[in-house]
Design a protein that fits this description.
The complex is a heterodimer of chains A (350) and B (440). Chain A has 16 helices and 2 strands. Chain A has 350 residues and is mainly α. Chain A has a domain of 240 residues: MetI-like fold, CATH 1.10.3720.10. In chain A, strand 1 and strand 2 form a beta hairpin. Chain A is flat and about 90 Å long. In chain B, the strands form 3 sheets. Chain B has a 6-stranded mixed beta sheet with strand order 2-1-3-11-6-12, with helices on both faces. A 4-stranded mixed beta sheet of chain B has the order 8-9-7-10, sandwiched between helices. In chain B, strands 4-5 form a two-stranded antiparallel sheet. Chain B is α/β, with parallel strands linked by helices. The chains are: A mainly alpha (350), B alpha/beta (440).
Chain lengths: 350, 440
Amino acid sequence: MTTTTTAPPAGAQPGTPQTASPASPRKRGHRGNRTPGEGRMAALLLSPTLLVLALVIVYPLLAAVHQSLYRAESGLDADGFVADVESFVGLANYADLFVGETGRRFLNALGNTTFFTLTTVFLETVLGLCLALAMNRAFRGRSFLRASILVPWAVPTAVSGLLWRWIFQSDGIANTLLGSEILWTAEGNASRAAIIIAEVWKTAPFIGLLVLAGMQVIPGEVYEAAKIDGAGWWRQLGSITLPLVKPTLLVAVLFRMLDALRMFDLPFVLIGPGKESVETLSMLAWDESNQLRYGSASAFAIMLFLYVAVVAIVFVKVLGADVTGAKELKLISKKSRTKATRTQKAEATR
Amino acid sequence: MRQRRRTWQTLLATTASLAVAAVALTGCGGTATDAKSAPKAAAASFEGKGPINYVSNRDASGAANKSIEEWNAAHPEEKVTFIELPDSADQQRQQLIQNAQIKSDTFSVLNLDVVWTSEFAANKWILPLPADAIPTDKMIPATVNAATYRDTLVGAPYYTDGALFYFRSDLLKAAGIAAPPKTWDEMKTACKAILALPEAAGMSCYAGQFDKNEALTVNFSEAVASAGGTVVDAEGKPTVNTPEAKAGLNLLVDGFKDGLFPSDAITYLEEQGRRAFQDGKLVFMRNWPFLHASLSATDGSSKVAGKFGITSIPGTDGPGVSTLGGRSLAISPFTANKATALEFVKFFTSEEQAQKRLALSSRAPVYASLFADPAVVAKRPFFPTLLTSLNNAQPRPKVVQYGATTKAIQEEAYAAITGKKDTDTALNDMQAKLTELSAK
């Protein structure tokens, strides 16, 4: 305790060090100077949050891992009632993911999930960027456009799935407009296309709005300078807009990827459960649990969890997406520090 | 320093009390479950009166609502609320099972499809009914059998269903065909003549329900049975690798291959088929009787009102074999008001209510006497045909693992009719899957 006595700022009441200490963060500075007492205090203050996190995240996760090691050997007793005996099978549920019928379905679902994630996120990003560029210009009715572009994102996915199902049914408007007779909701590539179209329609605005927010903090002077130097629109886009908007874009893309990896409701409502060409990992896990096979359902879910986790980690490490806002915080504190010194200097000169 | 220590103590105390509160909460949860599971032991006694929920598929005719209104008027303290489930039978089953698994008391009286009887009874998700509660001797035997699990009645038969073969009588007449086809070959011949007519331009011959759904299991079972085969024999052993089963599945496969069925019939459920027939796009259709009323609607919504007839579905040598459909009411063991639930089930499935519902609904009652009532037949001209169909009907596989069984059937039958697998491979794979399931 005594080690905390880094000279209290003048005017601080003796005996109230804990109110005084936050007032001198600049002097204390970085992590290394933090005392053990402060660390313990921080841990204590965080403990309710950690407790809640453990309850809603860690516990279900561990429960799923535990469940995935068991398998229900359902049989009928003499009276014809189901006698569910859960027996420990070790990693057998995981081993089954790569062999036989279950293996085929799992790999198919894994392929579908990856395919949908890559295609939809790519298309959304391109489309979202275009939307943001369009909205970033000053024109009449801009705010109206911005609000209306959010509508697809605001519609619940299940509802938009239903809407698109009507559009894509055999005598629906999609076939009428195209003059075609494509069976969008049957198995096949058409159903994949239907999913991609509906998903991009729904989520491109999300990327668009995030990127737009990123674009609006780019100061106008940068563009003015570029104009004076004779840079054209494309050059400005490539050398100013995209590099400066990159941190926001990366975060948006990461969010979308994690979202797309656990895609469930859209293929389920739009095409229907049990259709191989659009079955994703979440749908497979759901279907297994629906057949009351909770062990293998948990194994599917854990695999999906690991897949999502790996993608997230790789994305953050390789592309350096600034998810937690750590870099931004640093920038802000740097700015405020320089501002503070500037005002101090100004006061001094006065 | 002292003050800081005091703060520490406060924090420690807060955290500790939070933890205590959490433990207390879980404790409360525990007691609540105990309290809930207690009456389960005394389930068969049917105690407790009060409001209940009736969970059911949609009744577009409003007849079920009328019965419920009548009950509610007479029993203001034991009101019944109608909870409507989605149209898809798969989704209905999922919701019912999920509620049973969490032992939710929201669902009191369950409207169960006949094929779910074994699964729900074996898992103790429904209660066995008292022996004398339901007048089973007056009901069509097949419907009572369908609501029975291991010699115990677990459901009160509510309505029954058999397939009907809808045909365009005006077009048959125009093509000079005297009687509706009784076999698939006769149907093909009739179609050839009819589709050559100018007024039949752009029409297709036939459609059933072929989307990957419970309805596909129905259509597959009917095709197999109509060709003289079975899906599962009397001992519960799968028999889909027989020549009869192959002939049955080939009827559907060839129907798509030869353009007898519209190509988008692969996306048809009951409703899509109705729309197509009602809009005059189909000459023949296999569907349930409940469509009869909307097809004969004279308010302009149906283009085929007065222009269609019904008969038994076609087979290979004579009339085909329908699947037994229909519903029964069962009582959840997790509901608090079991006495009310039982009384309501008795009331709802009584002959009197069944007769009253006939005024609005074309759903077939389970009481054979109502089919013979001339006043009813005058209103529902398809009833004699349906009774024939019902007397000839075969159940779908009566197995506990019905969910996985029907899934395997759908998977393989869909692969065959979409041309992904040839008939032999699909049926062999189906046989293997069903054998594995029946062993459990």
